[in-house]
Structures are given as structure tokens and as C-alpha cells.
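User: Hi! Is it possible to get a structure for several chains at once, not just one? Here's what I have:
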Amino acid sequence: MTIKLYGFWRSIASFRVRVALRLKGIEFEEISIDILSGKQFEPGYDAINPAHALPALVHDGNLLIQSLPIMEYLDQLYPGHPLLPAGAKDRAYVRALALVTVADTHPLTVPRVRNYLAKTFNAGQDAVHDWAGHWISEGFETYERLLTQRPPAPFAAGASPGLADICIAGHIASADLFKFKTSAFPAVAALGARCFAIPAFASSHPFAKPGAPKQA
Amino acid sequence: MTIKLYGFWRSIASFRVRVALRLKGIEFEEISIDILSGKQFEPGYDAINPAHALPALVHDGNLLIQSLPIMEYLDQLYPGHPLLPAGAKDRAYVRALALVTVADTHPLTVPRVRNYLAKTFNAGQDAVHDWAGHWISEGFETYERLLTQRPPAPFAAGASPGLADICIAGHIASADLFKFKTSAFPAVAALGARCFAIPAFASSHPFAKPGAPKQA
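Assistant: Yes, the chains can be modeled jointly so their relative placement is included. Here is the combined structure:
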């Protein structure tokens, strides 16, 4: 049984699932759906994910969508290298950190929103870039406050990287795509450096994927 | 020990937690933070939630933020009237339904985004209203496709209302705030009618809260 991940090189939600799979040492095959050219709306993929978004995962005949539920699913079925702590309070903390980007920031910067801004408000390329930068920066500010309140030790929930670290690393990868720096956010930057020193993270970064543009 | 919920009458994320608490029969006290006048940024609330968002919950000395992690926390500690099914596949389905609004739609329509649109793109009241309507409608379309693919029986995950139903009902409540109709989405509308026939949902609707404007 091969696990199939429908993803795309610059999809940050796909990045999250790639890291989760690799931290757990689960083999998978990735199928690229080019969301920049609208392949997520075509009939073939519509049948896989009626929400027209990435990622989707096929595991043991089950078709799963949305990065967080997929990671929780993998964590329940593959308990090696847990992504979530056991206690209710710590689980809530990790999930809340995840949602700062998964809910409150990242959805504001995805292609469908950037395209709609351009169309509806006649926003040029720079204005759309600034829009993304504003929300990415808001996410960093929130993370910096939260990580200062409860410093990583050395990862968000303790000794090993998990769900929160994956999502924060994804936020950093998103900033990389737009060429925004993390230097104003030292707690976030330090956590990110710790994450991207790990092969599961580094090999999943958008710029490490086939199809990514060459970086200067 | 009194559970404290920091919420606001028109906060849809607060609505979700109110319903979860009431479905489980958990007593709580709600403290209103007026997010329309910026109370979430003031020092008192900043100390509670550095993410400057609603809701926050204080339970047994634990301070929790973000509606989904709070509902998962309550579900782990108060197993009566479970909000999530037991199996990994069904849990993933329920969480994915939740995130269609929690991640992909609702964050695009909250006050901070509407305010930023107005400021940055000089968007007038009608344009901001149309923006919200566009994303709320996208959410309904996705829900309609998903609920047609796997019809509620009679709730999203089976016999009793849970996490997915709460989030879909919140999406409908959000549409109510903007005066958008659900009639074009029959599967969603039928599920919503089933939910709002239940006192835990009806009594938690924004229009049922103190502070809400009188409805015509």
C-alpha cells in the first residue's frame, strides 16, 4: 500500500504533511497538482477534493483532506515520533500554535485570495505582495509573543519537533516564498533554525522541491 | 471552579465554544470583549490572549485559546456528548469539515481583515460586505459539495451533533450577520435547521446574545 500525497511545491499546507510523514519515517508518493494554473478545479482533482485545495492524502483506501486533520490522523495511526503531547492542556497549546498560521494567517495569503484581490480591488503585484507581507508579519508577531511567554525547550512542546513546530516552520517557509525576513522575530527565527536543521524539514521546504524556481 | 469564556456576541469562534459547552452541559460564565471597538488589543486582554483574538477559556487554572483546540480539550476532559467520533478516519472527516470554515473561510471575513481592506484598498462598506459575501458563499459551496458526497445522517458524523455541525452552524450564523441566505445550499440549510432546533445552538446564536442589535 503506497500512501499518496496530492501536493504542490509551493503549497505550505502540503509542506506540513510532508514534514509529518518524514518525521514519522512513513514512505509516500507525491502527486503534483499545479494550484497556480488552476489544476485543483479540474474534474480529476475535484473528485478527490471537492474543496479544491491541497493537500489530499490517500491512505489505506481512505481519502483525507486538510493538513491538520491529516497530521492528527497520522499521529493516531503511527504513534512513533508523536506530533502531539498526551495531556489535554499541552495538546490545546500545540493546536492553538498551529492555528495561528493554519487559520488566522496563511489562508489570507493563498493564490485564490491574491487573485480575488487583484480582480476585485484592481490590486497590482506590489499591493498583493504587501497584503501577504502584512498578514505574514502579523503571524510572526503573534508567534513571537507566544514563544516569549512560553519559550521553546527546545521545540514548542518540548524535546522533539511536533505539530506546532511544523506549522511555525511552514509560516517561515511561506515568508521565504515572498522573500520576507524573520530577523525581527528572534524567538521564531531560532525555532525555525532548529527545525530546518532537521532533514525532514529541510527536504520538505518549497525551495527543495522539484518544480521550484532556482534561488539566487 | 467557574469556567470563564472570553467572547463577544458576534464572534463566531465564541459561538462555537458556547455550543460545545452547552451540548456537554458544562456551566460557564461569559465575559464580553468588544472586538469591534478594539478591546482585544488592550493590556488587560493582551495578557490573556497575546494573539488578540477571541475566544479564550479559563478552565482549572489553564488558559486556552482558539476555538478548535478548546473544543478538543473539552471533548477530552468531558467525554459526555462526544464532539468527535472515535475512529481516525471519521475524526479526520469531522476536523476537515470544521476547517472549511475555521481556516479557509471565516478568517477572511473577521473585523481586522475588513478594516485592513477598507484602509489599504479604500474599500467602501458595500465592497467590504461583498468581499465577506464572496468567501461565505465559497464556504457554502464547498460544504454543499461535501455534504452531498456524504449526506448527514442526520448530523455530519452520525446520530448526534458534534464538532463539524457546530462549525457549519457557525458558518450559517456568520451568513446571518451579513444577511446572506442559505437557500441556494439545500444540504447545508437542512443541516443548519436541524442544529438550530437544538437549544444549545439556538441560545448561542449571535442574535440571541445580550448586546446584539434587535432583528427586524
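Residues 88-201 of chain A form a domain with the Glutathione S-transferase Yfyf (Class Pi); Chain A, domain 2 fold (CATH 1.20.1050.10). Chain A touches chain B through 46 residues (CB under 8 Å).

User: Great, thank you!
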